[in-house]
Amino acid sequence: MKIALMDSGNGLLAAAAAVHRLRPDADLVLSSDPDGMPWGPRTPEDVIEHALACARAAAAHRPDALIVACNTASVHALVAIRAELEPELPVIGTVPAIKPAAVGGGPVAIWATPATTGSPYQRGLIRDFASGVEVTEVPCPGLADAVQRADMKAVDAAIAAAAARTPREARAVVLGCTHYELVAERIRAAVRPPSALGAAPLTLYGSAVAVATQALRRIGAAPAPEAEPTGELTVLLSGREGALEPASLTYPEGRSLTAAGSVRRPVRP
Fold it and tell me: Where does the record place the region Disordered (predicted)?
């Protein structure tokens, strides 16, 4: 079994780690675009071009499924990627977990990039899945870039700014960018610090486990977390075979993919 994931940068690590936990025997192909990132400021046409290049590089390794582990690419390029690769290769997009967050009622805060915050795409998800629930859209300028660089001082500054715009009574925070899942506990501590005695518990909603589970479902595979960690890892950097970058290895999700027994020799197409 081989699962490919794509993103502009290290936002794919959370979903890759989730796949690895569910199926440690699965080969993984991680396709990112360090030469072209960030994708957020690009035009939709540029995003489609770069996302298709990442998807094609991953597809050349003949995976059983491809996860588009990027909210920006899912918004702008998912249709184009599916049109080119499906039905031969199942393609799974990433959608902010607004629906499960809204099930328990509000208030709910949605943290996302400035380009996604207030967009017709996000507003449509709120309308369809959170009607009647108090929702606050929180732009997080600079957070994804800081996570990509593993600049924790900048990460904490961006989180603090977003936390200040988040209602104090928020019951849930939707992590509307895959990069944010890598610093989820820093977000939790900023929004609901330990000093907030008597405050309601805060639930964070990411997408990594959902897309990993959906990828397995699409190829008819069941989770088997007890399987031997025999999966091999291939890393593609703007189409070139390489290794996980140092910034990726600062996160537990990245290190879990390179732990003893989880990485073998590179997989060739």
Answer: 247-269
Q: Can 70 be counted among the known catalytic residues? A: yes
Is 265 a domain residue? no
* Tens digit of pLDDT at every position of the chain (269 positions): 999 999 999 999 999 999 999 999 999 999 999 988 888 778 889 989 999 999 999 999 999 999 999 988 998 899 999 999 999 999 999 999 999 999 988 899 999 988 888 888 899 999 999 999 999 999 999 999 999 999 999 999 999 999 999 999 999 999 999 999 999 999 999 998 866 656 678 999 999 999 999 999 999 999 999 999 999 999 999 999 999 999 999 999 999 998 644 444 443 43
Give dist(CA 112, CA 175) in Å, integer: 7
SS3 234: strand
| E strand map for the chain | 2-6, 27-32, 65-68, 91-92, 108-112, 135-139, 172-175, 203-205, 233-237, 240-242
Instruction: Assess whether 66 and 33 both reside in one domain.
Output: yes
Given 57, 101, 115, 177, the catalytic residue? 177
Over the Cα atoms of the chain, what is R_g? 18
Q: What is the CATH number of the domain that holds 144?
A: 3.40.50.1860
Are 236 and 178 found together in one domain?
no
Total number of domains in the chain? 2
| Domain that includes residue 117, residue range | 98-205
The reply to whether 140 belongs to the active site is: no
85 lies in some domain: yes
List the beta bridge partners of residue 3: 28, 65
- The neighbour count for residue 35, using CB atoms within 10 Å, is 11
Catalytic residue (choose from 26, 70, 170, 172): 70
